[in-house]
Design goal:
The structure is a homodimer of 336-residue chains. Chain A has 336 residues and is α/β, with parallel strands linked by helices. Chain A has twelve helices and twelve strands. Helices cover 43% and strands 16% of the residues of chain A. In chain A, the strands form two sheets. Chain A has a six-stranded parallel beta sheet with strand order 2-1-3-4-5-11, with helices on both faces. In chain A, strands 7-6-8-9-10-12 form a six-stranded mixed beta sheet, with helices on both faces. In chain A, helix 5 packs parallel to helix 12. The structure holds a DNA duplex (16 and 16 nucleotides). Chains A, B: Keywords: DNA-binding, Transcription, Transcription regulation.
DNA sequence: CTGTTAGCGCCTTCAA
DNA sequence: TTGAAGGCGCTAACAG
């Protein structure tokens, strides 16, 4: 039952003594084709295991029904959650997803985008890497008529489409919770200073303290380069302060993991001597003996979903529209 | 600088008063074209930002330089590690990867394969879902000339290409370690009984006990459906035995997480009252206060890499060859 | 309702 | 060394 050559419209037409266009129309349920003809065509098509040659259709329609997704790393649960939703939205729209991991390497990121372009994807969803500085690729793609929507880790530019989590509301909630538990010495372990995401966190942190009339102490704000060593150094710096903080908001869960480990090794009791809340990216807190008090959830699934639907709107739109910015509120989730 | 219509070979030919065929040949460094012509063509091509239309090439060459990857879930670190290596191998070969998550749903799995087929991928890499029983899709793909290589979770059939971890060597090592630590009451929390992977584990477990002259007790072998509830039920069953085991090998890390949590809740001390080793799929053990003694590593990266290179061999081969089976040895990695 | 014609962009004989 | 012609499979404008 193996077909050496897959059946074509031509073949069906020949056998049925019809023209290829009639067959094509019949297969696509074109209204102008008689019911009987349509039936005959479909029956034979089924018999021959006919399947339209997508590559021919892509070629003709100048559309590939494919979108590209570029993100730093699939092994981050945040992104695997996001891409799952993206996949779902794409499937509904009958689109296929091509995915590439930049691994925070700008060159690799560029190569992936190049591939996506030559593959003529209809659109791109992207979360940029930590080290990406050069945004010229955006014009490259948009110049080729490929719309692009950024999500989560987005460039600090006004004229691009982006979907992000606000970072602020969660931070304010976190500080509210800390304060209501009696904490006043609240520190921030922030990410690399030049990351926009770090600037936002810092701003929110300061705003949160201000709301409670707590003075901002410079020594309570430390940075990490997000490596395990950097994370450890950051917490040690805080612990060595004369008046060490009793509560810490950390850049993300991975930072929190390293930091909490270091705290344990120092012989301090988690959730007693010192308390943590971090921006969430889904380690398996529920299995830990001493998880952080709470996490600031950023809803990767929602972000991915929204970014994808936005992209499809752009793909379907004829005109290029004004850049769209969508902001999701982050929210504190207790890990109790 | 935005091109409304991307440049084509025809366009270049028109401007240079050459024929399209000459331009095509020049761009492909065909030896029969004069050096000067080739230069002129290439220069103009660069100027016009000419890029070959892949969709046209795919169509003409009857090849898409695309491979599909189907796996249960990206959120399992095992698979994200595997797909990263697959991506790398594919990139080297200048192939693109289309990925789909089955989420252990056979219908969804089938839909993904259908999509891959209509997209005319050149080959498929696949790890089947837990609930997949019907393997007819294999003929569907191979009938269409699409080679398929299974990895990790593979069908229990002889005539397919597969790359797996052996499961046995790691289990034997695990039992060796337990025994050398003085354990004799060694239990197995296995997966669903009808999973080939469960049968293999059980066989290895029995072999391991036999090697040490330890009698196999039926009540020390329990099964879980891999849900959190099933995992908890399994360990409770073991704990309720009159002579409860002091050492347990569990189906995988996720089972171990649930199981160890239940053990803690029962007030037992991990790594004291009861010890664990599990087949690894990468939770963040290094951050845990009481990780399992060791993990049986299955090298997802290696498996993915091997499966991918195998697939490319099959794609490049003219003839259909005998099915290939590759087995990686699993190995015990201490979590000390 | 159905057929004819033409062309998407590229490559590849065949002919000059 | 170059050009002309044809075709991959499908669709769509234009005729009947």
């Amino acid at each position: 039952m193996k077909e050496s050559k897959p059946a074509t419209i031509k073949e069906i037409a020949r056998r049925l003594k019809l023209s290829p266009s009639t067959v094509s129309r019949a297969l696509n349920d074109h209204p102008s084709i008689g019911l009987v003809t349509t039936e005959r065509v479909k029956r034979l098509a089924a018999e021959l295991n006919y399947e339209p040659n997508q590559t021919a259709i892509f070629f003709k329609q100048r559309k590939t029904f494919t979108v590209g997704v570029v993100l730093p790393s699939l092994s981050e649960p945040f992104f695997s959650a996001a891409i799952s939703e993206i996949e779902n939205v794409a499937n509904e729209k009958r689109y296929t997803v091509i995915m590439g991991q930049s691994l925070d390497d700008p060159d690799r990121e560029l190569r992936i985008l190049q591939t996506l372009k030559t593959h003529r994807v209809d659109g791109v969803l992207m979360s940029i890497g930590k080290n990406t500085q050069d945004y010229r690729f955006i014009e490259l793609l948009e110049g080729a008529g490929i719309p692009i929507v950024f999500f989560d880790c987005v460039p600090d530019l006004g004229d691009v489409n982006k979907v992000v989590s606000d970072l602020e509301s969660g931070m304010l909630e976190a500080i509210d919770v800390f304060v209501s538990c009696g904490h006043h010495a609240i520190a921030l372990i922030n990410g690399p200073a030049l990351l926009p995401a770090s600037a936002e966190r810092k701003k929110a942190y300061i705003k949160g303290l201000n709301q409670h009339g707590i003075p901002v102490k410079d020594e309570y704000i430390v940075n990490t380069d997000l490596t395990p060593e950097g994370n450890e150094a950051a917490i040690l710096q805080l612990l060595s302060l004369p008046h060490r903080p009793s509560a810490v908001v950390s850049f993300n869960d991975y930072v929190a993991l390293d930091v909490m480990k270091a705290v344990r090794q120092k012989g301090l009791a988690l959730n007693q001597d010192i308390h943590f809340i971090s921006y969430a990216n889904y380690p398996l807190w529920k299995y830990m003996e001493n998880p952080p008090m709470a996490s600031i959830e950023q809803f990767p699934g929602e972000q991915g979903k929204k970014a994808a639907s936005l992209l499809f709107e752009l793909i379907d739109a004829k005109e290029r529209s004004k850049p769209v910015h969508v902001v999701f509120k982050s929210r504190l989730i207790s890990q109790g």
